[in-house]
Specification:
The protein is an alpha/beta fold. The protein has a domain at 22-75 and 136-210: Rossmann fold, CATH 3.40.50.1240. 40% of the residues lie in helices and 11% in strands. The chain has helices at residues 18-30, 45-56, 86-94, 102-109, 111-121, 130-146, 162-172, 199-202; strands at residues 36-42, 68-70, 155-159, 190-193, 203-207. The strands form two sheets. It has a three-stranded parallel β-sheet with strand order 2-1-3, covered by helices on one side. It has a two-stranded antiparallel ribbon with strand order 4-5. Helix 4 (102-109) crosses helix 5 (111-121). The longest helix has 17 residues, at 130-146. The relative contact order is 0.16.
Length: 210
């Protein structure tokens, strides 16, 4: 719902709209023939419903995995700026550094700076810094790697959030992807995760924003 109002939506739990439900159904149809060994999702309601909807459409998994919810798969935490107008929040973060919009912050200083600037601007400093953010996200991949039921070559469903997906692309994608286009709600991105390697080398992007 916050997307409709152009408000920051990280750890806050606004509900899926009818469009959001349709996005989940579309993703479910696209992935219906994929046999998933395991499924993980953010513990926000919108992610949990999306995971349940995708798995309900699935005809290939036997048995059908139960999605495991965990806070490590959440979107970035925007702290004091949760639910606030995006333009106003990014102005507060970037203007002291001479960048008045989110895109300008990223273009001039990088995606990591957008998190650090918002953390700095947050009067409570609850918005995640870049370091805090990646420590949590890497914890999510550690949870997947520790699952004894998942083996080399298995397909695993992970439901997270748009800015987290974009952040993974900025960090791990090879050249050639247009990252000025944000991932669409309900889109599918495929990532290979080699659990034998350290996390900085373990992820490689196969396809983005399908």
């Amino acid at each position: 719902m916050f997307n409709r109002y152009n408000r920051l939506q990280g750890w806050s739990n606004s509900p899926l709209t009818e469009t959001g439900m349709a996005d989940a159904e579309r993703a479910g149809r696209k992935l219906a023939s994929v046999s998933f060994t395991a499924a993980f999702c953010s513990d926000t309601t919108r992610a949990q419903i999306t995971a349940q909807t995708i798995l309900r459409c699935n005809t290939a998994s036997d048995p059908l995995p139960e999605p495991r919810s965990d806070m490590h798969f959440r979107e970035q935490c925007y702290g004091y700026y949760e639910g606030q107008d995006m333009a106003a929040a990014w102005w507060a973060a970037g203007a002291p550094h001479g960048a008045g919009t989110y895109n300008e912050i990223v273009e001039r200083f990088g995606l990591g700076a957008s998190r650090d600037f918002l953390h700095e601007a947050d009067p409570f400093h609850d918005a995640e810094s870049d370091g805090e953010y990646w420590k949590r996200v890497e914890g999510g991949f550690a949870i997947i790697a520790a699952d004894e039921g998942v083996h080399d070559g298995d397909d695993v469903l992970v439901i997270s959030h748009g800015n987290t997906l974009l952040s993974l692309m900025h960090r791990y994608a090879p050249q050639g992807y247009d990252l000025s286009e944000r991932p669409r709600n309900g889109s599918v991105t495929r990532i290979d995760f080699d659990t034998s390697k350290p996390i900085d080398e373990a992820l490689s992007v196969v396809a983005y924003n399908e």
